[in-house]
Known about the structure:
The chain is α/β, with parallel strands linked by helices and 450 residues long.
Amino acid sequence: xxxxxxxxxxxxxxxxxxxxxxxxxxxxxxxxxxxxxxxxxxxxxxxxxxxxxxxxxxxxxxxxxxxxxxxxxxxxxxxxxxxxxxxxxxxxxxxxxxxxxxxxxxxxxxxxxxxxxxxxxxxxxxxxxxxxxxxxxxxxxxxxxxxxxxxxxxxxxxxxxxxxxxxxxxxxxxxxxxxxxxxxxxxxxxxxxxxxxxxxxxxxxxxxxxxxxxxxxxxxxxxxxxxxxxxxxxxxxxxxxxxxxxxxxxxxxxxxxxxxxxxxxxxxxxxxxxxxxxxxxxxxxxxxxxxxxxxxxxxxxxxxxxxxxxxxxxxxxxxxxxxxxxxxxxxxxxxxxxxxxxxxxxxxxxxxxxxxxxxxxxxxxxxxxxxxxxxxxxxxxxxxxxxxxxxxxxxxxxxxxxxxxxxxxxxxxxxxxxxxxxxxxxxxxxxxxxxxxxxxxxxxxxxxxx
Length: 450
């Protein structure tokens, strides 16, 4: 009878513990559903809410207003060579920003892209940036933004294709062919035009941007800080400066989930958690013998390790990697799952020594620019850094080569997107930017006073 009573008590304890676990599990799942809806690798992902352009819409509004203001200026602020008027001598700008653009037949993001880059910059910051906009058509009047006053006033240079007959004939041929292979081939020629225009002013860094992105307020000082960190970390790895290929300022959040290639790691971690829990319970059972017949019975241990732990591990993975294990802020290597070419910053030595010769020499390469660049970097063991959080967002819903929603320009699930960008707070970013400008002013005053 005593054994029967003890058995009944044990069973009740097991049931009570399991019900308590289920209650906690349900509450945790409800909490995660409110926190993980922006993670595309999560079962709680809600695309209709995650893809709402919150901060981007605010920034686009600022950018459009800035563009309208620029359109009526007679003397817009532009890059100033510190040693004179020539762009081939003296110290170059901090950044040359190269933006290539093609007509999207009724959709243009170019004004917003340029406006978001320049809006909020101090006059001193703007004078340290050289903006190159390339309308990538043999007949540039085909582009709906051709010769727009805001474009003329915001860009420092508006290059065209080389005038030699052979190149012009090739580009017209590629323009007439709508295939992906022709697009990829022409894209490399377009990049060579942009990079050549930037090389003429000898910047410290060249940033290439697609024409359908939005930059956050304060991107300039964040990019400078990230580049300094990347260079320091490159040296700490024992690598020369020419081993640092680029800093990525945008990556696609869809690719940072539980990647199938890493399944052995996930299995090992899960088994490790199970074994650690089992060892802990057995140690407690051994250390406190009185619990063997009440709390830490064999049934309890089987329930904990055989049911509760697997359920908890399953919920962990179901919640999504970016939600439960978000990338740490800062600058980190990103050699895998790096997409796409919306925003990259290159030390100028890489542009001159590698990128320009490479793009000029790939007439027969049909790989897209981002794939081509990553393959080359893997082959040459180049370091590729990425900054978290990202500094730009991809907002274009109508691609220049047929992807996305071609009728309405609405962002679709197959378009690159960073889900955390929309959580930016405009006030906090503006305050951060103002503090940085104030610190730079104070440092300049100290130097002058010294």
